[in-house]
Amino acid sequence: MTDRQIMTGEEIRRAIVRISHEIVEKHAGTDGLAIVGIQRRGVPLAKRVAAAIEEHEGVRLPVGALDITFYRDDLSLVAQQPIVKGTDLPFDLNGTTVVLVDDVLYTGRTIRCAMDALVDFGRPRAIRLAVLIDRGHRELPIRADHVGKNVPTSREEIVKVHVEEVDGSEEVTIGRQLRAGEPAAGRQ
Questions:
Q1: What is the bridge-based pairing of β-strands 157-162 and 171-176?
Q2: pTM for the full model?
Q3: How many CA atoms lie within 13 A of 41 on its CB side?
Q4: Closest CA to 130 of 50, 15, 19
Q5: d(C-alpha 67, C-alpha 37), whole Å
Q6: What mean pLDDT, rounded, does the chain reach?
Q7: Which CATH architecture has domain 9-24+31-76+83-155?
């Protein structure tokens, strides 16, 4: 089975704009608000959310990047030499409402790691979550406050978010993960 597109670049843009309005509405303004993207694709999405808020509210919010590599509970399964992308939080987290931004919400484990990492840098007043795609299958009691698109999936499917800044293209696709020994579609 080949990947099929479930969001175009324009649909991603519209989802980001909608999420930015929801964030401001839920927070009742922009005072004390900060946006933090989870490395890798969450960072450009966070910058886009902040830019959209600046466009409609006229306020530039602080934006940061959070690397959760060493907070993962599956670090030994990921790689022997994990690639660290870096954390950049150029503002004081204490007393702020932080909106964590990520591309896909799946089991909830990435978000748990991100919250652990955040509190190592300060004590936010509140932490909220914005994701482009919520695909279900939670293993932890975590839910997003702001969702671009809910996509029901099976555990065998893979959701891929492509952003221009990282991948050179803009789209969200869904495909099926091949099981060991299973031939790829069209090959026998």
A1: antiparallel
A2: 0.90
A3: 23
A4: 19
A5: 9
A6: 91
A7: 3-Layer(aba) Sandwich (3.40)
Residue 188 pLDDT greater than 50, yes or no:
no
The pLDDT tens digits of the residues spanning 41-92 come to 999 999 999 999 999 999 999 999 999 988 876 555 445 555 567 899 999 9
**Where on the phi/psi map is residue 136: left (φ > 0), alpha (ψ -120 to 50), or beta?**
left
pLDDT of residue 184: 56
Residue 95 has pLDDT above 70, yes or no: yes
DSSP collapsed to 3 states, the chain: CCCEEEEEHHHHHHHHHHHHHHHHHHHCCCCCEEEEEECCCHHHHHHHHHHHHHHHHCCCCCEEEECCHHHCCCHHHHCCCCCCCCCECCCCCCCCEEEEEEEEECCCHHHHHHHHHHHHHCCCCEEEEEEEEECCCCCCCCCCCEEEEECCCCCCEEEEEECHHHHCCCEEEEEECCCCCCCCCCCC
Question: Does the pLDDT value for residue 16 go beyond 90?
Answer: yes
**Torsions phi, psi for 14 (to 5 deg):** -65, -40
Q: Are 129 and 160 in contact (CB under 8 A)?
A: no
